[in-house]
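Input (structure):
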């Protein structure tokens, strides 16, 4: 089964992404079983891909928004329900890399590391 190529078919995905992006920790949706949860995860990623394609049509290649989605900073993952009822959660959460500091490397630092 192929996924729809029309953004309007992904209203449920838009809702979950919007709710997740408006929360510091993200959002989740409870799905009836693993197969349906996996399908929803695929739909979420397809929707985000379509937004990126739309941004390529809407913006010039020199624009920072070209080829990007406002939801690129979010990851979509699956977790089994703790109740053991066969249900699965689709989580949409920010990428948590916990970077403390970013530094540029000078040439002498790179040469000294070799």
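Output (sequence):
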């Amino acid at each position: 089964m192929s996924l729809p190529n029309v953004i309007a078919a992904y209203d449920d995905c838009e809702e979950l992404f919007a709710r997740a992006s408006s929360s510091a920790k993200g959002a989740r949706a409870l799905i009836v079983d693993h197969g349906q949860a996996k399908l929803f995860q695929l739909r979420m990623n397809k929707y985000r891909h379509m937004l990126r394609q739309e941004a390529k049509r809407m913006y010039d290649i020199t624009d920072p928004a070209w080829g990007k989605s406002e939801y690129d900073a979010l990851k979509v993952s699956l977790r089994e329900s703790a109740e053991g009822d066969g249900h699965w959660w689709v989580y949409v959460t920010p990428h948590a890399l916990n970077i403390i500091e970013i530094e540029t490397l000078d040439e002498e630092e790179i040469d000294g590391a070799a």
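Notes: The first helix runs from residue 11 to 21. The mean pLDDT is 92.
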